[in-house]
Amino acid sequence: MVIPLLVFVASCELEESAPEAEKEAAISDELRLTLEAEQATYQGFPRVFKTLYGTRVEVVDFGDGNYALGDMILSKENFESELAGKGVWDRRKIKWPNKTILYRYSNNMPQATKNKVDNAANYITNNTDLNVRKWNNDNEGYVWVGYSESKGCSAEVGYKNKKFPGQKMNISLNCSQGTAIHEFLHVAGIIHEQNHWNRDAYVDVLFNNILTNKKSNYFKVSDADGYEISDVLDTNSIMMYGSNFFRTQEAKDNGWRSMRRVDGSTIIPNRSYMTTKDINIINAVY
Q1: Helix axes 177-187, 111-127, angle to 10 degrees
Q2: How far is residue 265's CA from residue 154's CA, in Å, rounded to a whole number?
Q3: pLDDT tens digits, residue range 38-87?
Q4: pLDDT at residue 131 above 50?
Q5: Residues 187-200 pLDDT 10s
Q6: Which member of 65, 233, 236, 247 has the lowest number of beta carbons within 10 Å of its beta carbon?
Q7: How far apart are the C-alpha atoms of 33 and 29, rounded to whole Å?
Q8: 81-113 b/e (C-beta count within 10 Å ≥ 16 → b)
Q9: pTM (2 decimals)?
Q10: How far apart are CA 171 and CA 37, in angstroms?
Q11: Which of 107, 112, 81, 85 is nearest to 94 (CA)?
Q12: How far is 231 from 254, CA to CA, in rounded Å?
């Protein structure tokens, strides 16, 4: 099997300034704020390199056995599984038992944010085979949904079987209901769509335009053992990054994108709804 390598040479030359890249600048303030919150910088924590599913990636080290890669919180299980060294992401290894995600939220969470979390849980429950409901003294691991005004949106990936105080998910002031859905899907074991093994057939990742310490967000897993559910990347997925994520200052100044569709068009991220493929992935796993 060929192990995928994350090579940070240009996958193509720096692109010309593209007028369509300005489309993302016109998105609603709510979406802009929630996407910024999703791209938390984790100031003050050291960065280390780990091997994740066959690729050497730079992650934020929280010092408690947890690491951040974008808004995904990973633990040693993600790095040490039998398949991790083979470049394969087996979502079925981190499934929630009984097709049910249990969650609680912190007492300091404003009612408006509680509503976003509850609405996101109900949306997933009503549209997939996965049940997302509040913890009620169940003798099972659960998600502790924390709240802060500035720490961004993030979640531990997959089932960790953690009881009190539960596994981590954070919803900050600027996280939308759509981002709460996005984070719950991380909890369900779903990673970002641009990490798809077949992504190069659908998008160009422009590494020259991406901040050095953010390039690892574009790692790619392998389908060598057939654990991916679909051969198709969905650029409209609620788990997909947009064309202007993690750009260098030079790229911003020149209107250069960090990623684009292979036909040259701009990817405007969706944080509103699950696509048919998003739903099919959940149902295939659960």
Answers
A1: 60
A2: 28
A3: 887 788 899 999 887 767 889 999 998 899 999 999 987 777 655 544 54
A4: yes
A5: 998 989 999 888 99
A6: 65
A7: 6
A8: bebbebbbbbbebbbbeebebbbbbeeebeeeb
A9: 0.88
A10: 9
A11: 81
A12: 34
